[in-house]
UniProtKB/TrEMBL annotation:
GO cellular component, one term: mitochondrial inner membrane
Species of origin: Sporidiobolus salmonicolor (Yeast-like fungus)
Domain Peptidase M16 C-terminal positions: 194-362
Membrane topology field: Peripheral membrane protein
GO molecular function term, any single one: metal ion binding
Keywords from the named record: Electron transport, Membrane, Mitochondrion, Mitochondrion inner membrane, Respiratory chain, Transit peptide, Transport
Name this protein carries in UniProt: Cytochrome b-c1 complex subunit 2, mitochondrial
Domain Peptidase M16 N-terminal: 44-185
Compartments it resides in: Mitochondrion inner membrane
Amino acid sequence: MSFPALRTSALRVPSRGAAAPALARSYATPSSLFSVHDANGVKVAAADQGAPTSSISVIVKAGSRYEPAPGVAHVLKNSLFKSTAKRSQIRLVRETEMLGGVLSSALSREHLILTAEFLKGDEAFFAEALGDALTQAKFSPHEYNEEVVPTVAAEYEQAIRDSTTYAFDLAHQLAFRTGLGNSLFASPHTAVDHSAVTSYAKAAFAPSNLAVLGSNVDAGKLKSLVSDFFVSGTASSSISTPSAKYFGGEVRVPSVGHSPLDQLLIAFEGASSSSAEFAVLRYLLGGESYLKWSTGASPLSKLSSADVSASAFNLAYADAGLFGISIKAPTAQVADVASKAVAELKALAKGASEEAVKQAIAKAKFAAASALETRFGQVELIGAQLAAQGEAPASVADVFAKFDKVSAESLAKAASSALASKPTTVAVGNTHALPYADALGL
């Protein structure tokens, strides 16, 4: 289970294609095919795999953890692909649809991502459109008031009515308070000043803050296009944030939606994205079913039923992580399922069988490899690494090698470390009946 980003499709036509089948280990892996270049300070990685469709993604270090005031990053995400010095919004819409392309934006806690998907051969137009959004956006007040603000308010309302999305956002606020704890959503109770958004964009869109990832695009051509369209001569970045610090805490809120199921999150301090143990520990606890008509064989999947779900999650960031268990069930069943789930985590802190560890490592490998075969996965994994380190991404073989070093002992140590931290618990639903953390033995 992962909730990495808030996504908005600004301009789109019906989506195309499906994920490719898994690659054998002897084949070239998607990450190893990307070559990295520098285009006037912008890191560019691209691979041409000969597919009929292509994409270009711009990964900007401008997620909610870096915003100077609450909600600025969310508003900036929705301010993109509007009028620029070169094009009106309606012209951009018409030209994009004429070419059958898709322009979209997404926001995570660490990155703002602009993506163009298109038929191979149209990369020049879409690279220019992305560059215009970065360097020549007008951020017109009338577009802000008439289009951006209503969209932001609608996304906020949708988020708080989805108990799972709302619970994960609250969990980050409790766990980290500021930085990674900043909400992904701009609240209507805290107005976002238009000038604050334009100032944030100016600082965030500096070349040193950008990374560009091209799929099925010639690397040399993409480098040239980035040099032509992405670089503003006066831009300089002032984006920074203190290192993440974990706190933990507890919050209980009534459900805003009308779901018959309540949501309970039990989270602990995890580790950064460089750690393999928590990624494997997630699959050791499990919760997902890998066979139709079966709940699965992992400890948490055995707690699931038709109207009950319990699954582990691992949200890893550049310098911190949040690890835990998500439970969604009728009010009367939440406490029992939660107690049993916590007991399973405590049992893993004492050790796990070699067979169970081997199985969890295999699941972690499959998840990593299959993610790298999708465009969204490549942006999330390869693009984020390129933005953070400015170097060629690790190959699947390198990722597998990290997982192979995980042992039953290191997993027990990771589980113990998590349990030693102050828990972060979020209850969304019937707050009169849902359990408190201390009632679960935490």
